[in-house]
Write a structure and sequence with these properties.
This protein folds into 2 domains: 36 residues, Single Sheet (Rubrerythrin, domain 2); 122 residues, Ferritin, core subunit, four-helix bundle (Ferritin, Up-down Bundle), CATH 1.20.1260.10. Helix content is 59%, strand content 7%. By secondary structure, the chain is mainly alpha-helical. Strands 2-1-3 form a 3-stranded antiparallel beta sheet, with no helix packed on it. The chain has 4 helices and 3 strands, in the order βββαααα. A hairpin with a 5-residue loop joins strand 1 and strand 2. The longest helix is centred in the middle third of the chain and has 27 residues.
């Protein structure tokens, strides 16, 4: 029988026999998926220390920009598979932006458009962005004073590093 699950990172619900290996919304590893009955809403994060707040705001900028960039990449991708991949990446990064706004208790960010390039350049730029995000988030996780902020950055570091693993073989 299917059960009700919830992702501790993005707060989205999931119905399934088992917890998924990755959250279908934010990509967080399966260890963050819990029974819905055990979920305690962690938002907004109270009494944010200045560094944590600054790091979350910086992450929000990266996520909004990535959302916009991947939307453009979806439009220019040549294969159906790559279009689907960029659509999925766009949705995951949009979810990251959304979970950060909830932590900060600010309105959802407006997403506009951002330019991109040729299909191969877009793949290379995707790897660059994911590598940058992974580095920035690992540093933010290490610096984090608040346990919830640390948890967010540890999960996001993992998600973006999995994006690198997926994208890199496509660049050659
Ligand atoms: Fe999630
Ligand atoms: Fe992200």
């Amino acid at each position: 029988m299917i059960k009700v699950w919830k992702c501790r990172i993005c707060g989205n619900p999931y119905l399934g026999d088992e917890a998924p290996t990755q959250c279908p919304f934010c990509g967080a590893p399966g260890k963050y998926i819990i029974h819905a009955a055990e979920y305690v809403n962690p938002n907004p994060v109270k009494d944010l220390e200045e560094t944590d707040k600054k790091n979350l705001e910086e992450a929000l900028k990266l996520e909004v920009s990535a959302t916009q960039f991947y939307a453009c990449c979806e439009g220019t991708a040549e294969s159906g598979e790559d279009k689907t991949m960029f659509h999925a990446l766009m949705k995951v990064e949009r979810e990251h932006a959304s979970l950060i706004t909830k932590a900060l208790s600010i309105p959802e960010a407006e997403t506009g458009t951002e330019p991109c390039n040729s299909p191969l350049e877009n793949l290379k730029e995707s790897v660059r962005r994911e590598v940058h995000a992974t580095e920035v988030y690992a540093k933010s996780a290490a610096e984090a004073k608040d346990p919830r902020v640390k948890e967010i950055f540890q999960a996001l570091t993992r998600v973006e590093s999995e994006h690198i693993d997926m994208l890199k073989p496509k660049v050659g």
